[in-house]
Here is the input.
Amino acid sequence: MEAKLAAYRAEKQRRWEAEQRRQRLAGLYQTATGLFRRQAPAPAEMEPSAAATEPLLPPSAAADGPPPPAELRDVTGSSGGALDWVILACKIGLYLTLFGICCHFQFGAAYVVVTAIPIIYFSTSTRGRRPGEASAYSVFNPNCEAIDGTLTGDQFQREIMYGPGAT
Here is the structure.
């Protein structure tokens, strides 16, 4: 009986230690990823603007469908504080340090090319527009009218159903 009790206690201690290790690793991961991600302000911190209080869709249409993913929601209130500048300076310093090391080993050009790929990827990523930010379409077409020569959905459907001369 004592052997079973000792084995049970050892197993319980092992599980507790494994859980503690997992929690420490999760905390380290959250800390590390938090350094590279900008945190969205809490809803209580955001001030509603006049445009944000007006519903864009009728109530029945607004209730349909799931909410947009987190990366497509607007992040308002990100003013670029002092901490953001410090983090940017650290990132630039790290980049230049690694570039210097690569130049010392004559891999400077390869380093620039390899690091350009993620920079281009993250710079061209899709994100939601912020309130008041003009869309690319509305910059060139302020009233969002149909532009001559563009293919509309209705025209496309007519051409598919009745042939190209039906429009």
